[in-house]
From TrEMBL, chain A:
Residues 4-234 form the ABC transporter domain. One of its GO terms (molecular function) is ATP hydrolysis activity. This is ABC transporter ATP-binding protein. Transmembrane segments: none annotated. Pfam families: ABC_tran (PF00005), TOBE_2 (PF08402). Belongs to the ABC transporter superfamily.
Automatic annotation (TrEMBL), chain B:
One of its GO terms (cellular component) is plasma membrane. Keywords: Cell membrane, Membrane, Sugar transport, Transmembrane, Transmembrane helix, Transport. Residues 111-301 form the ABC transmembrane type-1 domain. The chain crosses the membrane at residues 20-40, 115-136, 148-170, 182-202, 223-248, 280-301. One of its GO terms (biological process) is transmembrane transport. Its main location: membrane. This is Multiple sugar transport system permease protein. SUPFAM superfamilies: MetI-like.
Amino acid sequence: MAEIRVQHLRKAFGDFVAVQDSNFVVEDGEFFVMLGPSGCGKTTTLRMIAGLELPTGGQILLGGDDVTMLRARERDIAFVFQLFALYPHMNVRKNIGFPLLAQGMPSAEIRERVEETAKLLRIDHLLNKSVSGLAGGDRQRVALGRAIVRRPKCFLMDEPLGTLDTEFRDLMVHELRELHNRIHATTVYVTHDQMEAMSMADKIAVMNHGVIEQFGTPREIYDRPATMFVADFIGSPPMNFLGFGGGLNKGAKEIVVQGAKVAVPEVREDIAPTDMALGIRPEHIRFDDTSKLRGAIYGTEYLGTTQIVAVETADGIIKARVPAEIRLSTGDHVGLTLSSARLSLFEKGSGRAVRTAVHDAASERRAQHG
Amino acid sequence: MSLTTAHSVVAPSANSKRIAGAIIIAYALISIVPLLWIFATSFKTPPDSIAYPPKLLFQPSLEGYCNLFTTRTRQTPEYINSLGPATDFCDETTRKRNMVIAGPSNFLPRFVNSLIIAFGSTFCAVFLGTLSAYGFSRFKVPLADDLLFFILSTRMMPPIAVAIPIYLMYRELGLSDTALGMILLYTAVNVSLAVWLLKGFIDEIPREYEEAAMIDGYTRLQAFWRTVLPQATTGIAATAIFCLIFAWNEYAFAALLTSGTAQTAPPFIPTIIGEGGQDWPAVAAGTTIFLVPILVFTILLRKQLLRGITFGAVRK
């Protein structure tokens, strides 16, 4: 296993820039997820790490070696494709053993390694079956088996759960994470599904338009989104934004939104007057009739333990996650209280998050633990 | 219209099935009657074959096949009587017509020529076609669209339109009346069809297969050989049949460019007429034998052929 270091990686297809100046380090044994909407450059980045595309600029280091311009077969990596790419003319055993055959391994040893891998994935009973008759989950396991059997430097996975049913997908998310915990393989996993990313990743990079918007642990990304895009992309329903004007001074602890005063985490930088946005996670909103921040109930989605309530405010609809017991009917006027310690502030123009006490507290915690 | 008879949108109704069946039977009859007539004629005696009204029931005879494979000379009955007893069936039938067998005819070597040229050119066209189709399908070929159009454009006129230049070129190059020349010619005609057909098939094979193989330690050529080719067999088989049918049946070029050693069966068979009268049973026998290889080949690969005709129509 090895660490992956990506430096100033860039890829252009003609005039279209798919990846601009990407920098990140995947540490040895880490499960790293690249998350973003389709067309954001995450798959292109993965294919460059694999050697299926050559970068326009930048460097890729694999375990300290520069592999930027090496052929895919010279990199010692394994790739799991979205469509699995199982060879239909071979049975499960041959599919899993295919990479070993390329290395010229003796057939007895191939047999042993394939069976060992199949046991690990609990597909040893399928070894002599044809791959075309397999169920989605088993195909997925065979594809994983073909990757694991090589014991490569790292695993690259391109939306490997994208074609599975929801039911199978949840199962495979657990299985993949469990497998990772057992073999501790450096893994780069590409997905557009935030639930997959949040539940599996050690580190996540959120990409948009070829740029990594934020790189961090799932918790950092959820609690302290670096940009409005990340805040909007992560979370279901996503973060709400309420606009407000004017600048901020270092040390400010209160802002005015729609005529109501809202306490916010202490601001740690000066911001010149501009359009700003207050970011609120749906679960950080409570109904409180004394609040000056008001709106009318627009609709509700009942989810069993909680409900998502859409509230129409002067600045558009915001969604709140509140206990299911609260009885509400459309058109009711409600007051909204926000959990001050969990709020985010953004510059609307650049989308950048304003540095607040939340960030400083996190870096202090890191410094203490580190 | 009662609601109890569930009406399916896709399943054909009983009536349309009957009509479709009738059309197919009618078409099958129209296509198969001439073939049956040829087959029957090949087993008639020459007098039976030109009898009027035509004989549907007759005493089968192998005389046509004897005549196809031999050349005969007319002799006086005295001379024939002076020979020893007839050695085999052909000898005997020939003598009844006051003739003796002079030697083997050219049919067998012509038939072998046909096999060599048709299968040889099919192999070349499919081989070149597969490689080019793979290239066009997977790589960024400069001017790919123009090149593909150029390749297709070679099919836009009947090949025989260039017969005279090709005749002159072949005479200069010494390729006239050679198997090599015919293989080159049929390959050139078929390769455009092969490239286009196979590109369709290879486009349908996801690139992930080769990419997976290349990541797993194979070179591109190995990946092509081990993952793309096995999945393209259907397309390759379909293409091979189309190429073979063309090369096997081709008459005009063969008649123009081959006359002796490299002559194929199609221009040879009609020349049977004229050697000792209108020997329809021998012509029919030649045609029947000529049909066998393509018939066997097509029956063996009929599934692929069907898929070749409808290729690209249905996405998997």
